[in-house]
Amino acid sequence: MMRKLRLEGYSNLVVRTRSELDLTRQIEVGNFFKDEKPEYVFLAAAKVGGIHANNTYPAEFIYDNIILQSNIIHSAYKSGVTKLLFLGSSCIYPKFAPQPMKEEHLLTGTLEPTNEPYAIAKIAGIKMCQSYNRQYGTKFISVMPTNLYGFNDNFDLETSHVLPALIRKFHDAKISGHDSVTLWGTGSPRREFLHVDDLADACVFLMRNYEGSEIVNIGSGEDITIKELAELVKQIVGFKGEIIWDKTKPDGAPRKLLDISKIKALGWQPKIGLSEGIKTTYEWYVGNIGRS
Ligand code: GFB
Question: Is 118 labeled as catalytic in the residue annotation?
Fold first, then answer.
């Protein structure tokens, strides 16, 4: 978001690091909004992680996300913010929703157990934005991105999402000369991926052009099996060894492809293809994090 907003020439950007402002503290968040009086709020702060992190820390995922989003949404209302964009996730949809998943499929079936606490928190955020719009006339929009990847991602193997994990696992194995890499599950689930620069572009687009209370999906419009993704990352990284699948780890949702016809009808399109996006992300990783 910061990269995109600076590119667009916005200079009056107000941010706080986690150590400067603890978003789980209601009074501190209220004072921050009173002092700074932001006009536009991109609510991207959240406790996030991949399938293993969600499955391991359910209490933190539901508590941290409900608390911090409630503090920010309520303080945005109290301080008269012009518009707020709330970021949810594609995991809010039912585990067996028809594919591709449309916005109206929300709350039509049971959720994927591995990330239900997180999904419930995000659904609460959507309902809070919609309720404040209805009762107080606020303009709080809710957008639902698919699985994201790109620069500055979390590459910790315990808490990360699959794509950064694959980049790190294949790179480390290549550098260390290992002859195999172990991945989780069966490799058969399908996932959709969107580069974070495309997401930031969509968020600025919607902040400018959308005022509805209904949620809006943001995705690339195509998905891939984890096995196909692994082969793609393996080839981009240049790892020559074999892939071992650890079936004791969960697969999660079998598929969660978003229907993006709503945002396309508004005039937005994703621009960064998966293979190109992985290549530039791997280059960034090697230049900034990976051991060479
Ligand atoms: O990206 P990921 O952790 O989350 O896992 P979800 C996607 C798929 O990749 C799962 C498989 O089937 C994993 O088992 N996978 C294979 C791996 N190897 C690995 C690995 O080394 N690391 C990881 N992380 N996965 C998340 C939700 O679900 O999607 C979050 O838990 C959020 O709440 C996020 O919604 C967008 O896509 O399954």
Answer: yes
| 282: nearest Cα among 237, 240, 239 | 237
Q: Is 160 in the pocket of ligand 1 (CB under 6 A)?
A: yes
Bridge-based pairing state of the strands 180-184 and 242-246: parallel
Calculate how far, in angstroms, residue 194's C-alpha sits from the geometric centre of ligand 1. Answer: 14
Task: Confirm if 190 and 223 have CB atoms less than 8 A apart.
Answer: yes
For the chain, report the end-to-end CA distance as a whole number of angstroms: 29
| Cβ of residue 181 lying under 6 Å from some atom of ligand 1 | no
The answer to whether the CB of 146 is under 6 A from ligand 1 is no
Give, in degrees to the nearest 5, the angle at Cα 54 between 51 and 59. 170
Q: Look up residue 224 and give its two tokens.
A: 């891939």
| Spatial distance between the Cα atoms of 166 and 230, rounded to a whole number of angstroms | 7
Q: What is the whole-number distance in angstroms between the Cα of residue 121 and the centre of ligand 1?
A: 18
Task: For residue 224, report the phi and psi dihedrals to the nearest 5 degrees.
Answer: -150, 150
- 266 found inside a domain: yes
Query: How confident is the model over 208-227, as pLDDT tens digits?
Result: 999 999 999 999 999 999 99
50 lines ligand 1 (CB under 6 A): yes
- Tens of pLDDT, residue by residue over 29-73, are 999 999 999 999 999 999 999 999 999 999 999 999 999 999 999
Identity (one letter) of the amino acid at 260?
Answer: I
Tell me the CATH number at 126.
3.40.50.720
Domain span including residue 205 = 2-149+193-221+256-272
Position in ligand 1 atom list of the atom nearest CA 169: 21
